[in-house]
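agent> fetching stored inputs for the F0G docking request
agent> found them:
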Amino acid sequence: MRVGLIERYRRYLPVTERTPIVTLCEGSTPLIPAPALARALGCRWKIFLKYEGMNPTGSFKDRGMTMAVSKAAEAGAKAVICASTGNTAASAAAYAARAGMRPVVLLPAGSVALGKVSQALAYGATVLAVEGNFDAALELVLRACDQYPVTLVNSLNPFRIEGQKTGSFEICDDLGRAPDLHFIPVGNAGNITAYWKGYKEYHAEKESGLPRMMGFQAEGAAPIVLGHPVADPHTLATAIKIGNPASWKSAEAARDESGGRIDMVTDDEIIEAYKMLSRLEGVFVEPASAAGVAGMAKYLRSGLLDRNKETTAVCILTGHGLKDPERAIKTFGEIITVPATLDAVARGAGLI
Ligand code: F0G
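agent> prediction call returned; pasting tokens
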């Protein structure tokens, strides 16, 4: 029987017998080899895709949310709140529903992919579209938590990071050790923080090794790369359209302690990686999830990383492609409408 990640990694997590575990059997996501991608990028590396879209609400957020909502339940919380580019909202709403709490989510108006909005609504969240960007919404949520009886479930809640660090444990368990390179998209910077924490904890206990952390922001939303907040972030990868990340400092620490990099990729590079993943490997992700792969491709092409050196690389694919169906239709093209005849079908299919 599949168990949730709190049960699987209980001894690494701050829970007790008194913590009511709120779980949807998240985690234990597949680590998929990507030989066709490696060939297309002309490298001799072993590349693996950690497909976090396979979590119950379709993103890695479920790892942090099982912890945050379990601890909120332990503390007797009645309502949870978050600001979100969409995935945190969907996950918070699902786990809150399961715990019998009221979810409130603040979304940047007009900037959230449809799949995510539909999930938050389905799980019964009160959905507020804030006329401002994600950073403004997060600011409001923090103020609301100060003044009203509601629990924050953004990644500033330390239990979120605790849950998310289990991704590293799974990778080390699957590979038998840590990879050499860990590629990951960076938005609010909680996930790179969490993975680094996880690798360090496992290494301290099991000598599993430490990867270089390679984080990638979108070019129009790259405050960590630029060294200052971005007032008006823009990118088609709406999940990482963030101008002032909450975990900025700890992301820099992950980069520096691991000898890694935080860099940026263009929207075109993101879309190219998005296409490669689905067309070459059959792995459909949302655009933000492709940012790490785009960064890997960029570094291989530029020679910043040696394509001939024996290397194990893991790319974290943070969210499922169905989260953003509109982008998929725009990117992958036209549907051919045909009359209901065999001849038309054969022609349409290119069989004759
Ligand atoms: N990929 C996806 C699909 C995301 O939804 C996010 C963040 C990230 C990457 C970046 O992770 O913020 O930990 O650096 N989404 C948040 C949200 C901001 O509200 O769903 P991060």
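agent> quick read of the result: Strands lie at 31-33, 46-51, 79-83, 102-108, 126-130, 151-152, 181-185, 212-218, 261-265, 312-317.
agent> awaiting further instructions
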